[in-house]
Amino acid sequence: MLTILLFLKGRHNYTDRWIRYMKDMPYNVIIADGSLTDYKYSGPFEYIRYPYDATYTQYYDKVADAWSRVKTPYAVQIDNDDFLFIDKLPAYIDFLEANRDYASCRGAYSN
Hints:
By secondary structure, the protein is α/β, with parallel strands linked by helices.
């Protein structure tokens, strides 16, 4: 029902930490990597290696291709320094299902 798109360009320590945090996630994850280095990915997600994001055009080509691979009705686009509260995502999906006149929603954490 939901795909998470993770766009990368370097900062692989962040990526490794993100993967450890999100490894048991029940949603589809597409990792779109436009880094110059030879990152050694290992994990449960779909990893796609793209040409280096040397220009905005190359970056936007990566983004467009990754979005074209989404097969679920809902998607979230994030970076490797974003951490989702997985237990909150079903409420967002329920909101969008019940409110078809909305195109998106988000949440905020507060104590």
